[in-house]
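Example 3.2
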Amino acid sequence: MSQEEQPPQMPDLMQPAVVLSMAYLSRNYVDDKNPQHVLYVRMLFASSICVMVILNLYIYLLINGKKDKDEDEKEIKVNNPQTGKEEIYKTNKAYDMSEMKKKLTQLIMGVCIVSFIHYKWAIIAPLCVQSVLQPMTLFKSPLAKIYLFGKDDVKRPFDSGAGNNPFAKMLKGFQDQQKDEKKKKRYEKIKKKTGAELRKEKRER
């Protein structure tokens, strides 16, 4: 194997294992009819969220107080999957701040959704799962590696990890297939048109 070739990375199975483990424990060892058990789970969830908020705000302050260096003055181009447009960031600080705001938004939305599910249906499994999963996700994030652990070898734009996700690959393959079918139909439609129709369209343009 040449030096440039690297073995494929194994998918990260830690998070799915944690989710299944916490769901199993909450179902078999936590009694949702016991007020004391419910109180302990709520306290665990609230403590986890408080720690998450403090750490995220700490990272936010570190990013905000960062001074751009000369080597950071380079454009970072990122494709936005929601809008389909390319976003350009002038510095690492601007890109990191954008990612941090996304993380804070995701945290707030996640807390609201889990809290609503617990309030509406008295389900405690999401509280148990998120109490462990949220800190795990934060400590494995590129921003935490840079600003909490001081790693300088993290490349931007950050890898979303979709390359090792079989479901993401399946979704991308399905989207690519749909695009190919649309291109094929468009080509066949143009091919069926006569020369006179094509000349008429050019004059109208």
